[in-house]
Request: fold
Amino acid sequence: MIDFYGLTSPNVQKIFIMLEECGLPYNFKPVDVWAADNHNPDFVKLNPNKKIPVIVDTEGPGGKPYTVFESGAILMYLAEKTGKFMPADMAKKYDVIQWLMVQMSGVGPAFGNFTHFNLFAPKPGNEYSFSRYKTEMLRLYDLLNDRLQSNNYLGGDTYSIADMATFPWTRQHAAHGVKIDEKPGLKRWFDELSARPAVKAMIAKQNDIKSTRESASDDNKDRFFNRGKYARA
Reply:
């Protein structure tokens, strides 16, 4: 059994997809970051970085419980545990890992920072930051489209954890100002993944998750964004 700690972010969505694709039984345990649940001492024991998602595999290596945090590491762990969505061939395996790392080091940070400066940062005064992250986000959309015009999936010929990791970050393409119809490789891939039963299951479960985002206290928002009295610069 997998105990799965998360909420609704793209990093959590990717783990929902993987668990559904693999058919692994899991218990979802909401961690409301807008209520500072991730700072609860019991959660910090699971992830000292105080971030979601986290999984605890009650039947981990050697039959003992094992905790994994960081979404990319969780995807790799589940792929190795199940023998699914990660090629055995070394070259093909590292094709997948490279594109997983593009998501982890590029798509996630750039898309996330664009969203922050677009929706949450004070205006005016952050025009440079907004322009920087929007420019990088749009560059990465072009990169994904170029890759998917010459390959069926991000990792190559087969659907993999690289696709599961990246798809949730592209779900808000319209809000990002991206005209997906003008990016044929990305559009084909996005439509195909959207139709997968595991992705549909993820979206349905996401729609049922409640958080205090809209009613979060100013202090909890400041803590979440590391600003106000929580800022260090």
Summary: The chain has a mean pLDDT of 97. Strands lie at 2-6, 26-30, 54-57, 66-69. The chain has two domains: 2-84+203-230, 90-195.
